[in-house]
Amino acid sequence: TNAIFTGVPTTVFEVMSRLAIEHKAVNLGQGFPDVDGPEELRRIAAEATVAGPNQYPPMLGLAELREAVAAANRRFYGLDIDPASEVLVTSGATEAIADCLLGIVEPGDEVILIEPLYDCYLPMARRAGAEIKLVRVAPPDWRLDRDALEAAFSERTKAILLNNPMNPAAKVFSEDELALIAELCVKYDAYAICDEVYEHLVFDGRKHRPLMTFEGMRERSVRIGSAGKTFSFTGWKVGYISGPASLIGPVAKAHQFVTFTTPPNLQKAVAKGLASDDAYYEGFVADMTAKRDHLSDGLARLGFPVLPCEGTYFVSVDIAGMGLGEDDVAACRTLTVDAGVAAIPLSAFYPGKNAPKTFVRFCFCKRPEVLDAALDRLEAYL
Ligand code: PMP
Ligand code: GLN
């Protein structure tokens, strides 16, 4: 059947946000901050809008943003990226993922996805003609098993799509796990499409390490970032891809027919943002760590078993035995409609069979008073 898009449901983020609005629930479902990013960057975008030009920028992205992406690769990861041929600016990481799949995958190629997975991966990969191989990781530690991963690779593997830090698992892949993925990519001559939108959201002294920095991976990886996540401008939809010219070339061919370009005023502001001092990046992590602890501690106090959160801006809880409904989907409905707090069922991230059905994800990048209001509502309901 080629009816994949007619068979694909509306994304869970939109469904839950609509339900949250309808029931005036505190929305801890869809992941977005409730405080906009730095005012200085908003002013740059505003001034660039007034001053213009507001016409098509270069297809690969403004030179100043491509240079800023290359500089950030060097500064944070010691990666040597050529801004002229190894960076592509996109309209959000979502477009970047689509471009990478369309540019790299040929119909019939196998693509490996790790479950639970971000919801656009599977329909987009299928649409690109991929045959999907799913590898599952399980809570609480979401450990990647060597045998399971090795079993997914074959001579037909074209690429693995890796989300690190991982939404919704809130996992940061260990050095060992990344080394294993790199080893198998090299062994099977496969590419890695690395969705690293949460690269600057890792906690407790962890440091993000791109798969691209592992031996043999520089020439076979593309790395995706998002200004939505790094600067709290999810509505801007500015993303960027770094990778070897041999991959950026075909990926840019997809980009030229998907959006062609990204608004120049926003690109200007994001270029400035990427060059922010350490205080910005450190302050961002410190603020999000406090929010994570605020919500995690609050949920634990209410009796929810809370899973660890190493990165991203999500925490998940086990709702088994909490009396919220027969499964996570029912529980999220109850939480939104009756308790007044929207959340996301983790089963939405599992296209495979026999998904766990007792986990619910909350987004914590909200003001303290909003987190308190959500916790108060939950307490009143439970
Ligand atoms: N990848 C992951 C893992 C995400 O959680 C998100 C969500 N925002 C995206 C990609 C999409 O990013 P963008 O808003 O930049 O398109
Ligand atoms: N990435 C966000 C999340 O996981 C949602 C983005 C979207 O709505 N597409 O909640």
TrEMBL record:
Keyword 4Fe-4S set for record: no
A GO term, aspect molecular function: pyridoxal phosphate binding
Cellular component annotations (GO), alphabetically ordered: cytoplasm
Keyword Transferase attributed: yes
Signal peptide boundaries: none
UniProt keywords, alphabetically: Aminotransferase, Pyridoxal phosphate, Transferase
Matches recorded under InterPro entries: Aminotransferase_I/II_large, Kynurenine-oxoglutarate_AT, PyrdxlP-dep_Trfase, PyrdxlP-dep_Trfase_major, PyrdxlP-dep_Trfase_small
Record-given protein name: Aminotransferase
UniProt source species: Rhodobium orientis
